[in-house]
Amino acid sequence: MSAASQSKVLLVEDDDAIATVMIAALEDEGFSIEHCGSMAERDRWLQQQSFDVMLTDVMLEDGDGLSTLENVRSHAPEMPVIVLSAQNTLDTAVRASDNEVFEYFPKPFDLDEVVQAVRQASGARKAQPSETEHLPIEDDGMPLVGRSPAMQSVYRMITRVLRNDLTVLVTGESGTGKELVAEAIHQLGGRRSGPFVAVNTAAIPADLIESELFGHEKGAFTGAIAQAIGKFEQANGGTLFLDEIGDMPAEAQTRLLRALQSGRIRRVGGRQEIGIDVRIVAATNKDLVPMIAAGTFREDLYYRLNVVPIHLPPLRERREDIGVLSQHFLAQAADDGLPRRTLAQDAMHALETRNWRGNVRELRNVIYRLSLMARDDLIDAGNLQDILGNEALAPGGNQQDRDGGIGQALNQWLHEQSPAAGTVYSQALAAFEKPLIEHALSETNGNQLRAAKLLGINRNTLRKRIGELGIEPDRFSRTA
């Protein structure tokens, strides 16, 4: 007899359509299911019977199922809980993590993934309660905004690193909010009482970066008139965010690797090693894999940093978030002293159809500009056109124009990235290969076998390139 056939599952879901589908899928796996639609019914079932796993929605007909998990634990302290939620914000993901649920799935979810989680949970014992205090989180205070499926993957990864100090590598285009991810990990994790120190390694001259990171002793070099404490020591007990890590000079990479390996640093010109206790979150808008092949980024440092990869999607890949982001920035602008504005539906549509090459940062700047310059409190498409000019128009054109845009995009990429001699082909190929593979995964709902057939390549080759390019195939699953 299988583990599933011996396991009893309590499903707490007030949407009958969702419940019907889930019951059928779980019973096909051999689980015994009891279903209810309220917290009151849930508590009655738990008083009468014992269950191996509970699946619960958050918003039920008689309240918030997540906020009452203490009642559940009083009846069944060892029972794993899996949370399902249409309230798919970072706040909900963090609350689920804080309540130490076995797994959290935002709606719409992949039914196969939920069944797999129930299968795993049915054989798992509840972990010992964490001594970490409850995090008083308000949704309006969340550093990240968005409810798209792409952002759900980001939220789930963030919640998985809140109870540990694993090193995180955040990747994504400029303006996607990589520093906000680092801030979220710090503010919501166990180091929130310590300092959060951010340093843009691309903005520091190569001859000063070691001093900036590790500090220096008086007289270590010309101009060092006093001892200086570096970013590592400043962040002791907290989080150090290393932005644009791909632009770090080779010699500094070596010293950074040594510090990460040993947990100790030495100030420039100093003799004494100093113990450090920091959590590292690094970020880059570059693809580090071809840089490793070109010899411009250390492979051992890459693997030291890329313990937990989190990829932030560009805004054009999560257009459904543009509305909520726009409303968020309108409120933020009003809080900053600008006139309070609202967006008409036609203006919102115009914003949602733009390409947003500058991503969330560009959207924020545009909303602030509209808040400042609009003549009326209600901003319509005409106001948008008056203020932004041609910027307000979404890129369009015929197929020939779009095909030509590929060449223009390549030229722009070459101009912006300026790859080193001898690496142009490999870096350009990698830069365009990643979105091509991501497109194939998106078109096939994350199914690697079908994606390989679509691309016309071997499945093993695709799997290898997915790993090398840091692609997360799970985030392309859209099946509910």
From TrEMBL:
Transmembrane regions listed in the UniProt entry: none
The keyword Protease appears for this protein: no
Example GO biological process: regulation of DNA-templated transcription
Pfam family, one: HTH_8
Superkingdom of origin: Bacteria
Ranges for region Disordered: 123-143
Broad class of the protein's primary localization: cytoplasm
Locations listed in the record: Cytoplasm
Residues of the Sigma-54 factor interaction domain: 144-372
Entry-linked InterPro entries: AAA+_ATPase (IPR003593), AAA_lid_NorR (IPR058031), HTH_Fis (IPR002197), Sig_transdc_resp-reg_receiver (IPR001789), Sigma_54_int (IPR002078), Sigma_54_int_dom_ATP-bd_1 (IPR025662), Sigma_54_int_dom_ATP-bd_2 (IPR025943), Transcript_reg_NtrC (IPR010114)
Entry's Gene Ontology cellular component terms: cytoplasm
Response regulatory domain sequence ranges: 8-122
This protein's UniProt keywords: Activator, ATP-binding, Cytoplasm, DNA-binding, Nitrogen fixation, Nucleotide-binding, Phosphoprotein, Repressor, Transcription, Transcription regulation, Two-component regulatory system
UniProt keyword Transcription regulation present: yes
CDD domains: AAA (cd00009)
Record GO terms (molecular function): ATP binding; phosphorelay response regulator activity; sequence-specific DNA binding
Record PTM 4-aspartylphosphate, positions in chain: 57
Primary role: Member of the two-component regulatory system NtrB/NtrC, which controls expression of the nitrogen-regulated (ntr) genes in response to nitrogen limitation. Phosphorylated NtrC binds directly to DNA and stimulates the formation of open promoter-sigma54-RNA polymerase complexes.
The protein's name: DNA-binding transcriptional regulator NtrC
Native source species: Erythrobacter crassostreae
Organism lineage string: Bacteria, Pseudomonadati, Pseudomonadota, Alphaproteobacteria, Sphingomonadales
Protein encoded by which gene: ntrC
